[in-house]
Amino acid sequence: MADTLRTIPDFMDRNADRFGVSAAYREKEFGIWQEWTWTDARTEIEEMALGLIARGIEIGEHVAVIGRNRPQLYMAMVAAQCAGAIPVPLYQDAVGEEIAYVLGHCSAKFVIAADQEQVDKVLEVRDRIEGLRHMVYLDGRGLRKYDHAEMSSMADLRDKGRAADRAEMERRRDQQTGETTCVMLYTSGTTGKPKGVVLSHDNIVATSKASSEFDGLRQTDEVLAYLPMAWVGDFIFSIGQAMVTGFCVNCPESADTVMHDLREIGPTYYFAPPRVFETQLTNVMIRMEDASPLKKRMFDRAMAHAKTVGPKLLDGEPVGFMDRMKYKLSELAVFGPLKNTLGLSRVRVGYTAGEAIGPELFDFYRSIGINLKQLYGQTEASVFITQQKDHEVRSDTVGTPTPGVELRIAESGEVFYRSPGSFREYFKNPESTASTKDPEGWVATGDAGFIEEGTGHLRIIDRAKDVGKMADGALFAPKFVENKLKFFPEVYEAVVFGNGKSRCVAFLNIDLTAVGNWAERNNIAYASYQELAQHPRVIEIMRGHVNTVNASVAEDEMLAGCQVARFLVLHKQLDADDDELTRTQKVRRRIIEEKYADLIEGLYGDADEVYTETEVTYEDGRKGKIKATVKLIDAEVVDVTAKPVAVQVEAAE
Questions:
Q1: Is the pLDDT of residue 515 over 90?
Q2: 242 with 212: CB under 8 angstroms?
Q3: pLDDT over 50 at 1, yes or no
Q4: Interior CA angle at 321 toward 319 and 327, to 5°?
């Protein structure tokens, strides 16, 4: 039986037959959790697929899916596969230009949109998209008076499917093999236009099986699907692993209710990028600042003990009886309620990836008993390249290769892998495909790293293009310092510069929630983000954090030269709408360097402040300018008497 399960629709059938009355999807709507069993899900998926065929979808055509995490949109992607088409999920917060690029690049013939907002964004660029034949919407509110000549509701699509003959769908499904394209996902585009990554059913199924077996995932597990549907991680967790194991995918009511819904569901398998864990920790610290002195002392003492005992208990290391009992008492009084507040009480397997996570942040969650681990992956690998085994979890590595994956390190220091999940190609981009994946199947990651002798663990230094050398030959790896800075609740984002220079400088973004809360408690009035960011007391807080990080960085012999000598607090938050971040919140370093060249020049000069004007994009698409005088601040650099370690790390082509 297992050998006949080659495609995602095959696993959908198996789950409906084997787990028919078990929950496949849940969604909170109007405050009530709605549930679809596997039998319900198969019925809806087949009706959607038959409706798409009746609407004229052809084998191999692309179907774009736009919206927040909703069971019907996940089912729509599987329905497209059943109809022989290829789903292409898009970021729900993408603006018109980004949508126009993806729809045009993949020549989408159908769009399945969640609501009026997404329909409007497509209609805005409709005249620039050749070949788009029809749009299906899920939520019809606000769309009654729209022209429905090339538009219909999901209910209408399913009605068409119920009246259609199943024979054509069955014929198309019978033609599919593991080599058939499963999905096309676009990269985040940190260095240019996003590329369409073509992944086959074999890629998704093999990777989902190997990663699920690695952590013992099972049908009774629960996950919360709240990350962008266009991101490869969400696809592998919410479709790949969900179909292979049969566990339930839960969708929150809205982006604003994610934390509340997380507590209600209590997932057993949880994934979040570092940014989410940073936000959760920031909220915890803010609440502790507002707590009574007694509760604050209890929390501080419990955490101090947990830092030494918690990770040992997770890793199965011996712990003294008194230390164990003290930890158990702290768990009853502090950690238990805290994990319940975070919605992580039932987490059996937790992962973070997407960016390097600061060791302090990572250790915090493991200290309170959450089995948080790191994985290393890429869109081109169907996510999984390395994972951390239980009892082999460390903050400074990303684990050992996922079963079936091979690793090698090039002479330049770049990491290469070969995997069953390796992508087939970049869509319409043979040049990039050839430069990334060689004829033997080795894929260039673009990251610099090394494999530890003895343990076989992979350590990632930074993006190969970002790693360089200081003027004295010392290693420059900005992400290492940025992650340490972002551990502090008041620091939302950090960008470090210094390649080829005699010293490092940094941009900092304040976390408006954390700093705003602090300002309120200290009776500090402010009228805007810009005013608060440049407040003298805020700058002094940031100076203290930078000095603390410098002292920590100085202890690392290889990276001691990356201490921040000068910094500034940016007058605006870095924003994806301004092309400063990707939709997955990764820093577009080159664009920031160009956009804020005057500020970087000022940091390397002698001035105490710099006047600057910055173009911004408002929510309605209009452009404007922010004018500001930004203070430039000196930090304390620890004198490192040891000779800097010279390195040879070449940027990837």
A1: yes
A2: no
A3: no
A4: 75
pLDDT-based confidence at 191, cuts 50/70/90? low
User: What's the Cα-to-Cα distance from 196 to each of 65, 199, 308, 543, rounded to whole Å?
Assistant: 14, 10, 45, 42
Topology adopted by domain 468-634: GMP Synthetase; Chain A, domain 3 (3.30.300)
Helix, strand and coil in the chain, % to nearest 5: 40, 25, 35
What are the residues whose beta carbons fall under 8 Å from the beta carbon of 505, sequence distance 6 or more? 496, 497, 498, 564, 565, 566, 567, 600, 603, 604
Q: Which residue intervals of the chain bear CATH 3.40.50.12780? A: 2-271
Q: If we measure between CA atoms, which residue out of 522, 535, 376, 399 comes closest to residue 457?
A: 399
Q: Which residue has the tokens 């070449």?
A: 650
Model pLDDT for residues 464-499, shown as the tens digit of each residue = 788 888 898 888 989 889 988 987 889 999 999 999
Domain with CATH 3.30.300.30 in the chain: 468-634
Q: Which CATH class is domain 2-271?
A: alpha beta
What is residue 464's predicted lDDT score, i.e. its pLDDT? 79
Burial label, 522 (beta-carbon count in 10 A; 0-12, 13-18, 19+): exposed
Q: Which of 437, 2, 418, 424 is nearest to 209 (CA)?
A: 2
Contact 561, 474 (CB under 8 A): yes
Write the single-letter amino acid at 529.
Answer: Y
Give the integer Cα–Cα distance in Å for 346 and 263. 10
Closest CA to 563 of 629, 488, 472, 490: 472
What lies within 8 Å, CB to CB, of 483 at 6+ separation is 274, 355, 356, 357, 358, 359, 361
| pLDDT at 647 exceeding the cut of 90 | no
CA distance 301 to 282: 19
Model pLDDT for residues 112-165, shown as the tens digit of each residue: 999 999 999 999 999 999 999 999 999 999 999 999 999 999 999 999 999 999
